[in-house]
UniProtKB/TrEMBL annotation:
Domain annotation CMP/dCMP-type deaminase: ranges: 28-159
Molecular function terms, GO-annotated: cytidine deaminase activity; zinc ion binding
Superkingdom as given in the UniProt entry: Eukaryota
Residue spans crossing the bilayer: none
Listed name of the protein: Cytidine deaminase
SUPFAM superfamilies in UniProt: Cytidine deaminase-like (SSF53927)
PROSITE patterns recorded: CYT_DCMP_DEAMINASES_2 (PS51747)
A cellular-component GO term for this protein: cytosol
Family statement drawn from the similarity comment of this UniProt entry: Belongs to the cytidine and deoxycytidylate deaminase family.
Binding sites annotated in the UniProt record for substrate: N73, V74, E75, N76, A77, S78, Y79
Protein purpose: This enzyme scavenges exogenous and endogenous cytidine and 2'-deoxycytidine for UMP synthesis.
């Protein structure tokens, strides 16, 4: 039986500071993740479900500088063709050459916060360590934090495949 992680108050500065210390991010980075994920949500194209999702990645570029990469869900009349906010953000980052991901933020218009869907969890797993935090914000800025490993236990990742050019494959 699984238990749900605690929901933290987005108005509790001491709790946010504690969360940031645990995640090895600054309170400024945390605030920017929240602000940018919420702003990204406003750009969602969700005319069918009306369910807006925004995501922002906290990354580092080749020079080690902090980079934020946003994404929003983009739906399609052919429902399976839509793309989730998390995959939009990762696609943008990866095609821009970014490969260092420190944290992921997701924002929705519901409470409690929503987690990435299964497809997004697997997509995120391709690019992030199992300990990468996912910060999920609800409509009130309250939040839940889980790692990729918690969201996708016993995951399948790139290391499970034989290296390119391995004999017998």
């Amino acid at each position: 039986m699984s238990t749900n992680p605690p929901i933290h108050s987005g108005a509790d500065a001491a709790q946010i500071a504690s969360t940031c210390a645990q995640l090895n991010i600054t309170t400024t980075e945390f605030a920017e993740l929240q602000r940018r994920a919420t702003a990204a949500k406003a750009t969602a194209y969700c005319r069918y479900s009306r369910f807006r999702v925004g995501a922002t990645l906290l990354c580092a570029d080749d020079a080690g500088e902090v980079v934020y990469v946003p994404g929003a869900n983009v739906e399609n009349a052919s429902y399976p063709v839509g793309t989730c906010a998390e995959r939009v953000a990762f696609g943008t980052a990866v095609t821009s050459g970014i490969r260092t991901f420190r944290a992921i933020a997701v924002a929705t218009d519901i409470s409690p916060p929503a987690s990435p869907c299964g497809m997004c969890r697997q997509f995120i797993r391709e690019f992030c360590s199992l300990q990468t935090p996912v910060i999920m914000f609800d409509k009130n800025s309250d939040y839940v934090v889980m790692t990729i490993e918690q969201l996708l236990p016993m995951s399948f990742g790139p290391e499970a495949l034989p290296p390119p050019g391995a004999s017998g494959y």
